[in-house]
Amino acid sequence: MDRAVNAIRRHGLLTAKELRCSSLVASDRIGDVVIVDVREKHNKACGGAPETTPRRFSLEINMRTGVIRWDNNFPDMEMVPIPRRAR
Q1: How far apart are CA 61 and CA 24, in angstroms?
Q2: Range 7-25 average pLDDT
Q3: Which of 34, 33, 12 is nearest to 24 (CA)?
Q4: Residue 39, Cα to own-chain centre: how many angstroms?
Q5: Mean pLDDT, residues 22-41 taken together
Q6: 25-60: buried (b, 16+ CB within 10 Å) or exposed (e) per residue?
Q7: Comparing C-alpha atoms, which of 57, 44, 46 is closest to residue 16?
Q8: Is residue 8 predicted with pLDDT exceeding 80?
Q9: Are strands 80-81 and 68-70 parallel, antiparallel or unpaired?
Q10: How far is CA 1 from CA 10, 37, 42, 49, in A?
Q11: Is the pTM of this model over 0.90?
């Protein structure tokens, strides 16, 4: 999860508030690759309907090489390289 949070901060994928109001969940592992879903956290501090946790995007982290890609919640959910600075 540290790699995911570091990538989110380094590439500006979320603001500090958005990151605080997000949950990171390892959803799958295939060999050296871990998929991390980044979901909205809905509670009193973050707002939103507490019974929902919409997916913001997913990260694909190669634990051996360190390469991280994301789907930016594109409709086809294709993993692509993260731009240097997304926002």
Answers
A1: 13
A2: 96
A3: 34
A4: 7
A5: 95
A6: eeeeeeeebbbbbbbbbbeeeeeeeeeebeebbbbb
A7: 46
A8: yes
A9: antiparallel
A10: 14, 10, 20, 25
A11: no
pLDDT of residue 1: 92
* CB distance 8 to 23 below 8 Å: no
Residue with tokens 């982290």: 61
> Measured between alpha carbons, how far is residue 86 from residues 7, 21, 53, 64, 70 in Å?
11, 18, 22, 24, 11
Joined tokens for residue 71:
């789907």
Position 15 confidence tier, pLDDT thresholds 50, 70, 90: very high
Whether the pLDDT of residue 86 is over 70: the answer is no
- Residue 8: CB atoms within 10 A of its CB come to 24
Encode the chain in three state secondary structure.
CHHHHHHHHHCCCCCHHHHHCEEEEEEEEECCEEEEEEEECCECCCECCCCCCCEEEEEEEECCCCCEEECCCCCCCCCEECCCCCC
